[in-house]
């Protein structure tokens, strides 16, 4: 489907405005602080808006209504419920303490807690992970371009990658924050417009007609909080919800904030807006079922796009699609900058050139942006399903990172470098193997992420019995060996 010329002009206009804002603020991203953590000057409104814009990417705006459309209203409970719980801990505890130490990346914490080699290894692992994470966003951007302009999916992937590569290469984190604020306003307005039109269409015949239409196409299971999901899938998505604890999108916002309090308040406040967004997306998913039926859409992940094109007048459709693309660009920008900091600081500076200048570190980070762009296009090209791509990435990534991170915060004893190496390696091998085997049940339903986390934890405690141990990070802080802000 190709939308009207007016709507296409609005979409391209939104992209151009975002690009111009980025170009203007790129002058503040010349130093390492400016390029990677926005000079640590971000105020509460900017942290709040940037957190929302980057965490709720375009993939989220497509797959959540798609999950509701295909599986029932409980699609939100299953796929997003655990995120809300973990977000609270992330904002109040993890990000706050991380900002008080004031570094650049999550692997910085690995280095402080386990040793410099742990920072290098985790930095490279995070670098690859950010490319995989971003692949879901670029697929979603390509879906919108395909729908709006009839553009080939491969061409959509490449054009999206080229835009964000050029943008991040020149702009840096400071510009990302500034455009995030504009992008969030656009996202919030576009989502509200679509939700209002959807609700008005659905309620024209009253509650009884609405329920009658839903009953015609939904089985009884789709009215339940767990929908049609299996126990393994429910547990699997619950495990993925822990992703917030290891997400560099959260930590980069915390590091960029003016203080630990600003980081905590901005992230916690974003949670309330996230939940309101989630429920608007549930309304959009249900509206897609009522208005479009379940037979006319081959790909549930395009339900939001078909609904928009069906019910929105010219002009409004362009605004909503601009909001979707803005959501995608925001998350892509944040992911690529985070990955750039991993390659520049955690790998290049720590392992290759300890005396590197800030300019050299930033330039290596820029090279990393190009590498990540190629990686996410390749992964996106071979992806069959947006939601399965997100699920698979989460199942593999969680066992690699979550145990060492939890060990930093909660295992208050000296820790060995081998604990990190064995934990990350064992978790990666276990989760990939379990996915390859089709996630078989053991005594309980066993998604790959849960199985991998269990093996990763065993590896952590075995590895911690070997090698020289580094004192607990928070004990170092307590005794003044590490200065807090």
Low-confidence stretches: none
Strand order of the largest sheet: 1-2
Structural class: mainly alpha
The tally of beta strands, per DSSP, is 2
Per-chain topology:
Layout: H1 5-25, H2 32-37, H3 44-55, H4 58-71, H5 75-101, H6 106-114, H7 116-149, H8 153-202, H9 206-217, H10 231-240, H11 243-246, H12 248-256, H13 260-292, H14 303-311, H15 316-352, H16 358-382, H17 386-410, E1 415-416, H18 417-436, H19 448-463, E2 469-470, H20 473-478
Helix pairs in contact: 1-8, 1-15, 3-8, 3-12, 3-13, 3-15, 4-5, 4-13, 5-10, 5-12, 5-13, 6-7, 7-8, 7-15, 7-16, 7-17, 7-18, 8-13, 8-15, 8-16, 10-17, 12-13, 13-14, 15-16, 17-18, 17-19, 18-19
How does this model look, in words?
It is a single chain. The protein is globular and about 70 Å long. It contains 20 helices and two strands. Helices cover 78% and strands 1% of the residues. With 485 residues, the protein is an all-alpha fold. A two-stranded antiparallel sheet has the order 1-2. The mean pLDDT is 81. The protein starts with a helix and ends in a 7-residue tail after the last helix. Helix 5 runs antiparallel to helix 13 (260-292) and helix 10 crosses helix 17.
